[in-house]
Protein 1
Amino acid sequence: QLPQTPAFVEEAFGVHLEAADVHGLPLNRDRHGKHFWGGWGSFFTVCLESASLIQDAGIVGREVGMIEACFSVPEQIEGVKSVHPLLQVPVGMLPAQRMDLYDRKARNQTRRAREAPLTTTVATGSIPAAWYELYRATRERLHSQSREWSYFELLAKHFGPSLHTVLATDANEIVGSTVYIQEGTYLHLLENVSRPSHWPMRVNNLVYDEMIRSALQSGV
């Protein structure tokens, strides 16, 4: 995880990094004293059931002074599903070569998206306030709970110039966006939102492609 992550997670979620490396994993504690293994976005809360996992958890528990707790476990221990990379990019790839990363369907859709009468920009260091309305509309369409605006303000506070927002606009209206964190050769996608009215223009392909193009241009 990035150096900024523990402070952000503690302020945004009330989860404190207890130890950076316990058996190769970060160990976290929430405001209620419950302990978790895992990083940002993967705080698994299920209790262990198998005897071997309980034994492993007991070893860690004794090392950090825990008596009763639920634990999370990584893929290496119990086959828990982990997040896989969106793309693996060869070292030194140029922005003009990015189409080689896509399959045939994605290439065709991206070319159509680039021909659409939409404008793309990348905001750095903060998320425009006008973006939040589209975010909430997207969450409602997906029947998912929206985060408060304060969460995105905390992202800007802690990640600053590493926080980027791709905006696709149509007559100054935001119709699609990706929000991501980039530091060095690492990129982590946070949000993808769009208006269904602009799906025929392949707006999602457009904002993903612009994110990848911009990242390659800056050295990912």
Protein 2
Amino acid sequence: MIPDVTPNGVFYLPPTGWLTSFYNPPFKKLIKYYKIIINFVVIFDAIKDWALFTFGRVI
């Protein structure tokens, strides 16, 4: 078995890549997607406010 710590106590990435999740956590992608969704919500809200101000309440 290949150790995942060097003799001086430093972790390293073994060739199998099983430690990849510690260096590249999947939630980083989720954070990026949440930021994109929040931007869409902010833009949609601004368009809605502009439409209400310009055209008044239609309903």
Protein 3
Amino acid sequence: MMRNTLSILQKTYDECYMRCSTAVYYESQGNEPEAMRCWKAALEQIYDHNANKIPRDHVARTQTERALVESLRQLELQCKERIDLLEALRISRQEDVVQRGSSLSGGNPTISADSSDQDRGKGYIGGAPIAEATAATFDGTATRATSQAVPVSQSRAPGASHHEDNASWP
């Protein structure tokens, strides 16, 4: 049974990782609905795995099993986080469109199809940048924020030293 459990864990992880990679690709292409579908499919597969494929009383016996279980847990958290962020972004954009529409039409909300309005809201929730998902993000090796986040000069705490930017500093 141990070999079977290990292969089930590995297969589930591989399939979920592929779905998450696909979601990251769709996010990078600006296709948020398809990215959302991929994140949800990966999360559903993890839930199905936890509910139906591994016995509830199963304890990982090898280091490999423990690593796979932990990796699946991390993928689950990443899926939940990206789903929440994409949903919040979608809601924020809808509220922004309704708010702009009601202020322009004197109380009657209308939907603006101005492409500059859509581009301006991309990657932001209420004017604040959201983190960009990368393939490395969900495997735990690195994260990367959008390039529009905060300029370096504004990212320092008040009174912080600027010496690390000075190339001539010893």
Protein 4
Amino acid sequence: MMRFLTTTLIAAFVLVSSAHADDDCDKCRKVVDATYLVCLKKAKNEADKKECDSSRDNQKKVCQVTKCIKSLF
């Protein structure tokens, strides 16, 4: 289920476009944080929590590459 959620979020990040790269970067990070909190609430054990951490880290990388780096150009 977590991998499906991650894949869905990654697809959403790629499809969403906006005029302001900085806003996109902030929005992306906020979505990652919110998704992480939901994941932690649903976690039933330490393994689930570690998967939440891993998913959050991967999503942050996606934000960095797809939304945040654009603001530098």
